[in-house]
Structure to design on (408 residues):
């Protein structure tokens, strides 16, 4: 087990500087354009693929970094560049983590490369769990997967919503109900391979922020996938369902479902994205406060402004520490006895919302215009308290973990 450290090693610093260079030179200059266009920034994803940032190898290297700091460091730098574009670059990772967490070695080897494509022909992937009537309440999911034993195929029907890269993905990972009696314990994850008949994109959402990231409904109508597309395989699913039925009979113990396993692994990473956006806005505000003069002196000369910047930086550093701790715990298999993963996501996302609002205020009228990036960062930051579990749901998870009670 790696010791917890608050300092990046030399190799990590090199990677961080390389990512920062890409974020500053390629992502940040393209941010306003793709925010306005509200489209997936394919050329930027392709640039990222060419230099090796958009690749399984890169993410695997960071994901398995024993210090746990690889992924948070990478997310912070990319999202410092721009949240919408960065989500277009890392969104595939959510689907990839779904396969890494639940798939067999063969499934990992077959599907993850097809999620990314290559630098000449980049592809993206989507993780589809949320539904119109199943957002925070994952257990009320209705998308159904029925096994056709004669053909060894699964048949999927339902409507997914809010899917990042939904409908434009080469590979979709879809969470569906296999045993409705078991609630969230009766869910399983499926790969829907490229060009599978019956899968289509529904509404594409026009959003408040992260507008360079594609978000859409995914409609599944008699989508047939081979038995081999069930993540983890049929034998493992049957064993898991049998255990869940036993526990249900005994009136018992909660078990994790497939979607929750994916969310748990990715929450500190979302916290790191929020840290990146917050840091970006704070830096713009600090520079502005030092140069903007009113009443014959820079506005930072007023405690009212300087103290805000002091608070902003303090919260950002505190958020990063929570994120790094949770990420180190996840990588080293430490038990989250106080829901430290949820804590990191909760604090970092609330920090991003607050800090970006403060940055708008410090820039005054300029902060409210699209001439300055803090307006976009403020819109972008609002997503962090919503996706991958809202702030209220994080508080619920933390409170339940601390109390051992099923607080509602
Ligand atoms: C841009 C974007 C990208 C997304 N990407 C994906 C993706 O790739 N894949 C995917 O599967 N999903 C994705 N999501 C979905 C996201 O995870 C959900 O929006 C989120 O889980 C909240 O669900 P909901 O929107 O249905 O809100 P609801 O669950 O309806 O919640 C509405 C409000 O009620 C509150 N609330 C609900 N229950 C409780 C409770 N028990 N106690 C206190 N408050 C409560 C919530 O906190 C929230 O404030 C994305 C969403 C967005 C907006």
């Amino acid at each position: 087990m790696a010791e917890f450290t608050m300092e990046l090693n030399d190799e990590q610093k090199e990677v961080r500087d390389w990512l920062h260079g890409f974020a500053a030179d390629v992502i940040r200059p393209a941010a306003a354009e793709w925010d306005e266009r509200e489209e997936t920034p394919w050329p930027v994803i392709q640039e990222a693929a060419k230099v090796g940032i958009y690749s399984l190898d890169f993410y695997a290297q960071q994901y398995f970094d024993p210090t746990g700091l690889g992924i948070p460091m990478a997310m912070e730098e990319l999202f410092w560049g721009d949240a919408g574009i960065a989500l277009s670059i890392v969104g595939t990772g959510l689907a990839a983590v779904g396969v890494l967490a639940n798939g067999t070695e063969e499934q990992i080897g077959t599907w993850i490369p097809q999620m990314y494509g290559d630098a000449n022909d980049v592809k993206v992937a989507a993780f589809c769990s949320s539904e119109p009537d199943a957002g925070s309440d994952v257990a009320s999911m209705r998308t159904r997967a029925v096994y056709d034993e004669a053909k060894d195929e699964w048949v999927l029907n339902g409507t997914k919503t809010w899917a990042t890269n939904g409908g434009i993905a080469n590979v979709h990972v879809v969470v569906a109900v296999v045993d409705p009696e078991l609630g969230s314990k009766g869910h399983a994850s499926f790969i829907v391979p490229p060009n599978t008949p019956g899968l289509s994109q529904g509404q594409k959402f026009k959003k408040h922020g992260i507008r360079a990231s594609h978000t859409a409904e995914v409609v599944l109508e008699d989508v047939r996938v081979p038995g081999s597309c069930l993540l983890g395989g049929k034998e493992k699913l049957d064993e898991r369902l049998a255990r869940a039925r036993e526990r249900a009979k005994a009136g018992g113990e909660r078990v994790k479902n497939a979607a929750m396993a994916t969310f748990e692994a990715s929450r500190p990473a979302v916290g790191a994205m929020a840290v990146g956006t917050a840091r970006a806005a704070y830096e713009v505000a600090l520079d502005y406060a030092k140069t903007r003069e009113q009443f014959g002196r820079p506005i930072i000369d007023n405690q009212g402004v300087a103290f805000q910047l002091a608070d902003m930086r303090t919260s950002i550093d505190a958020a990063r520490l929570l994120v790094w701790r949770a990420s180190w715990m996840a990588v080293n298999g430490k038990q989250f006895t106080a829901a430290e993963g949820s804590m990191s996501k909760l604090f970092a996302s609330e920090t991003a919302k607050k800090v970006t609002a403060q940055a708008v205020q410090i820039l005054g009228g300029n902060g409210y215009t699209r001439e300055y990036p803090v307006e976009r960062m403020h819109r972008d930051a609002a997503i962090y308290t919503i996706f991958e579990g809202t702030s209220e749901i994080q508080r619920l998870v933390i409170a339940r973990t601390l109390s051992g009670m099923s607080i509602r």
User: Anything to note?
Assistant: Residues 85 and 343 are 26 Å apart (CA to CA).
